[in-house]
């Protein structure tokens, strides 16, 4: 019998954060710790990919949050540097939790968007290499750019 070493993903470790930890994170960012903000952070901890406002409305249906309150909280959390807010070219903001301690200057990572089903996936930071070159904006060498790859996901494959 072969035993496989169990590794704990970053998402799994983050998902175990307790409510007091989330409340402290909010206060450290200069925000009041409210039940809606904690609910949003907990939901984004569980997310394996960037999530849209509409998806969060659906996921937080039982929490008593209306669409406007949720939208305002997402923007407040993003402005405070706790969330990354990304538009992947479809004019829909998607939100993801920034790793603790990174603030607004966290290294951005690339995303993959399926051109058929619209699924968005996070890619490892090293999936795309940005090289310095003549005539490129300084943001490229500082890796302060958003990179989105488009194509068909494995599930959609070559289906027409």
Description of the molecule:
With 160 residues, the protein is an alpha+beta fold. Helix content is 32%, strand content 14%. The protein is built from six helices and six strands. It has helices spanning 10-15, 19-28, 35-46, 53-59, 67-79, 138-141; strands at 51-52, 83-87, 93-97, 111-114, 120-122, 148-151. Strands 1-3-2 form a three-stranded antiparallel beta sheet. It has a three-stranded mixed beta sheet with strand order 5-4-6, with no helix packed on it. A hairpin with a 5-residue loop joins strand 2 (83-87) and strand 3. Helix 4 (53-59) packs across helix 5 (67-79). The radius of gyration is 18 Å and the shape is globular. Mean pLDDT is 80; it is low at 1-15.
Sequence-ordered SSE layout with sheet pairings:
Elements: H1 10-15, H2 19-28, H3 35-46, E1 51-52, H4 53-59, H5 67-79, E2 83-87, E3 93-97, E4 111-114, E5 120-122, H6 138-141, E6 148-151
Parallel strand pairs: 4-6
Antiparallel strand pairs: 1-3, 2-3, 4-5
Helix pairs in contact: 2-3, 4-5
Question: Which structural class do the helices and strands define?
Answer: alpha+beta
| Quaternary | single chain
Let me know the average pLDDT: 80
Report, as a whole number of angstroms, the end-to-end distance.
43 Å
Order of helices and strands: HHHEHHEEEEHE
C-alpha Rg (nearest Å)? 18 Å
Kindly state the number of beta strands: 6
Tell me roughly what share of residues is in helical segments: 25-40%
The major sheet is characterized as: 3 strands, antiparallel
Shape: globular
| Low-pLDDT windows of residues | 1-15
Q: What fraction of the residues are assigned to beta strands by DSSP?
A: 5-15%
User: What's the helix count?
Assistant: 6
Strand order of the largest sheet: 1-3-2
